[in-house]
Each structure stands twice: as C-alpha cells, then as structure tokens.
Amino acid sequence: MAVTRFAPSPTGYLHIGGLRTALFSWLWARKTGGKFLLRIEDTDLARNSEEALEAIIQAFDWVGMSYDGEVLYQSRRFDIYKKYIQQLLDEGKAYKCYMSKEELDALRESQMAAGERPRYNGKYRNFAGTPPEGISPVIRIKAPQEGRISFVDGVKGEFSVSADEVDDFIIARSDGTPTYNFVVAIDDALMGLSDVIRGDDHLYNTPKQIVVYNALGFSLPKFYHVAMINNEQGKKLSKRDGATDVMEYKKLGFLPEALLNFLVRLGWSHGDQEIFSLEEMVALFEPKNLSRSSSNYNLDKLLWLNAHYIKNKPNADLAELLHPLGVDIRGHDKIELLLDATKERGKTLVELANQIKLILHRPEEYDEKAVKKAFKGEAKEILAEFAHMLQSWEKTLHLPCDYHEVLEKIVETKEIGFGKIGQPLRISLLGSMTGSGLDEIMAILGVEETVARIHCAIAAIE
RNA sequence: GGCCCCAUCGUCUAGCGGUUAGGAUCCCAGGUUUUCAUCCUGGUUACCGGAGUUCGAGUCUCCGUGGGGUCACCA
C-alpha cells in the first residue's frame, strides 16, 4: 500500500513534466491500493495565485486522475511548522542566525571571488553573546558537518553527498514563515508518505530534507527521482517548444488518454508495449522500470497515439468532445456515418472537426489546382448527367452502397473510368481532391444537397 | 566553476556477460483505397570515444567527451 503525493506550488499552470510525475505517483498509489494525496506548496505567500491552483485541479480533472482526501494547503499549517521549529530550537538542533541579508551577500561574494562554493559560514551556530540590534533573525537548522548524507534512490540507486555540500540552511525566514525544504519534510512525514516520486531537479533537496527528518526523528520514505523531459532537440523544455501547459493539449484537440499514454512511456516502459489504457497502466506500473536517463518530447508519437485513440473512440463520445470545438452533431441522424467517414483522417479532434465541417458546409471555393486537373473535357456534362441520374433514380437512395450503384451505373453507361466522375464530383462536394469516401459523403448529404452542390460547382467553375 | 546525474536507431525504448542488438514512431517503397487518410507488407538507421576486467562486454571498472541537474530569507 503506497501513499504518494503530488505537491505543486501554485505559481502557474500544470506543466506536462509535472503531470508525468503526478501520473507515476498516482499509478503507484492506485496499483497498490494506497492513497494519492495532493498538497499545495504555498509557503511563499507573495507568489500564490488562486487561478494557478484552479488550473492544476482542472487539469487533473481533465485527465481523469483523482486524488484522495482533502487538498492540503501548507499556508494553513503554519502553526504546525512553528511548533516543530520551536522544538528544534529547544533541543539545540536549530538556532537563530542574525546575519543580515547584506552581510550574507557580502560573504557569498567574497567566497565566489576566492573561487569557493558560496555557503553559510556557521557564524551563529554556537553563538552565545548578545545578538546585534535591529535584526530579526532567521532560523537555521544544524546540518552535519562531516561525513556524507546518503540514501538509496529508487531510480538512481545509491546516492550520497558530502556533508559540506549541505550547510545550515534556513528553515524559517526572518518574518517567521517556514521554508520549502523544512515543510516538505514535515508534511511528507506527517502525511504518512511511503514513496516520494518527483523530478530529479529535487535530487539535491533530498539531503536537506533528510537533515530535517533526522532532527525530528521521522523515518524516511522511499525516494524516486525521475529524469527530466527535454524538448525534441534534447534541451530543457520551455514554452518556446510549444505546449507545456496540460490544458493547452485539450485546446489542441488531444484526448487525455493519449496524453497520459504518451507521458507514461517517457521514462517508463513495459517491454515492447506501446498502448496502455489507464487500467493497464495501473496494473503494470512498477517504479523499478523507471528510466535513469532523461527523455525527449516527441510530438509525432503523441499525434500517433492521439489518432489511435480517436479511431477507437465510440462515435457518441466523439460527438460530445467535438461540441466545444464548434461542431455540434449530437443528435444528427447521420452521426455514425459522419464519424466513421472522418475519424480515421484526423490526428486531433480539431482536425476531425475540420473534416466534418468540410462535409457539412457547402464549399465556398474550389481548389484551383484540383479543378484544373479534374475539370477537363466533358467533366461538367458528366456531372450534370450524374445529378440527373440521382434525381431520377427509381430506388430510394439511402445508404452509401445505394449511391455507389449510381456511380457504377454512370461509369458503365458513359463508358468512362471512375476518375472521370469521381474527381470532379469530389471537388463539387468538398472543394478539394482529398477527403472521405464519395459514397459516404453523398449518403450523409442526401440527394438534394448532393445535387445542389454539383450545380453550384458547375456554375462556379470556369 | 564545485558537487552530482545521465549516455542503444533522428525520437521513445527493450536488453540486465554469450541475441543476426528487438519493438514503436518518423522517413522511404510496395499493396489496399476512384482521391486523401486508415490498414497491410517490406526497407534504411543505433550501442559517444578510449583504455582496462573477462574465454567473451551495449551490459562491469576507469578516463575522456557530450548533455542535464544543483549550488536562495523560490518552490
């Protein structure tokens, strides 16, 4: 039974990298029948934004990941942190440091100038004199001064840093508010986390947090530091690389299951399997299969997955998803035909919507090149003849195969190839040379609209 | 710069001392389709470099190179 968490700071939208670590955590909790908790890291009161939090929850909602229990806000737990700060102070494991920001900056600068690593010099670690006037102190925790701080990472394996890489870092600011590494350790412990899965940009926070765990006598969870996602060029992923906001993918016409499937395969694998339903992910996920190396974002693969999920989605569901994109075919009497004719042709819902619009709306213009190629010779006469045949057909035209009969008939009686009628007809109906099958399109449009479009084309094309 | 992490087709990855180095995507070719797409078949392309260890190394060790992370009174 794993207890995991996702702990974003509400300073912006949910990033796909964040979604991926959240997904790993979520999968692990669900697989083991444990809990997946959500905690908001808002200790820096100045940087919070309500919208950011809503955006995160909205994104979780969209992809269908659910968290357990209440959302925990660190900003509402300051008295808990204060209690622990006092405890450490009382036990002599933390101390007040009266070094001003200016003094600290100067110290850093001189260290840098001397080619040293900037770090706190421990000036107030064992301070017993009278504190300087007019300075509200920060509180620093006593970190070990020798040896190594080590732990076993679930992804990286044995990991350790020298104690002098970790100085007596600040656990409470001069205004009394607690800092990140302190509260993370406390909350992770108090929330009963068994596994902390996060990006490996946190690798260096872990030793600091271990200092807090040890000072407070908490036992350590298991840590997993997942390698980052880079852009297609292998560089750090930034907004310039296209969509990094999870909700942007919704706008672009991606299905959440495609995005999740894409992300789960970035840094995780299960043999040769590429397609994973949410249920399969839950069943098959193992943190031990997490990759040690970073991976690159790859739009082609995402598009391929998205196309796959669109093709396999029930038409009624697609109709619902298409509605917000400006195509309302819910309740359309030809909905099955319409979607069957188009859904293999769109890599995104947006493309699918455009395909449908193309069929549903009369073309306003005709592709010039296509016209030039197809409207040669007696194309117009053939079209007119075809329109006439449609109107005077003895049987009721209903299914695609009915229309196909008419097409076959004209090919036979006029002794022409399929292309002679097919190409101009396609242009008349859609305005271009590509698109869904003609039989299907005509069956969707019906005789009246099909004939109308043919006449429009004959009139409009030179 | 210090410390640390990482390194298999362009990309995502399988491999866990002995394989013709596998799959997927992309790309190309052929087939299917009146078109496009789908689908099917086939093809091109990879162990970063160098030393070791070993009968044998993509797999282990070291060095180099490249990429990344991190060094806040941010999270």
- Please give the largest β-sheet: 3 strands, parallel
Task: Indicate the mean pLDDT.
Answer: 94
Strand neighbour order, sheet with most strands: 1-2-3
Structural class: mainly alpha
**How many DSSP helices?**
18
List how many beta strands DSSP finds: 12
**Parts with pLDDT < 50 across at least 5 consecutive residues:** none
Write the layout of secondary structure elements.
Blueprint: E1 3-6, H1 16-31, E2 35-40, H2 50-63, E3 72-73, H3 78-90, E4 94-97, H4 101-113, E5 138-141, E6 148-153, E7 157-162, E8 170-172, H5 180-190, E9 195-199, H6 205-216, E10 222-226, E11 229-230, H7 246-251, H8 256-264, H9 278-284, E12 295-296, H10 299-311, H11 315-322, H12 335-342, H13 349-360, H14 368-374, H15 379-392, H16 400-413, H17 418-430, H18 438-460
Parallel strand pairs: 1-2, 2-3, 9-10, 11-12
Antiparallel strand pairs: 4-5, 5-8, 6-7
Helix pairs in contact: 1-9, 5-6, 8-10, 11-12, 15-16, 15-17, 15-18, 16-17, 16-18, 17-18
This protein binds one RNA strand of 75 nucleotides through helix 4, strand 7, helix 5, strand 12 and helix 10.
Describe this structure in words.
With 462 residues, the protein is mostly helical. It contains 18 helices and 12 strands. The chain has a 3-stranded parallel beta sheet with strand order 1-2-3, covered by helices on one side. Strand 1 (3-6), helix 1 and strand 2 (35-40) form a beta-alpha-beta unit. Helix 11 (315-322) crosses helix 12, helix 16 (400-413) crosses helix 17 (418-430) and helix 16 (400-413) crosses helix 18. It is elongated. The termini are far apart. The mean pLDDT is 94. The chain binds one RNA strand of 75 nucleotides through helix 4, strand 7, helix 5, strand 12 and helix 10.
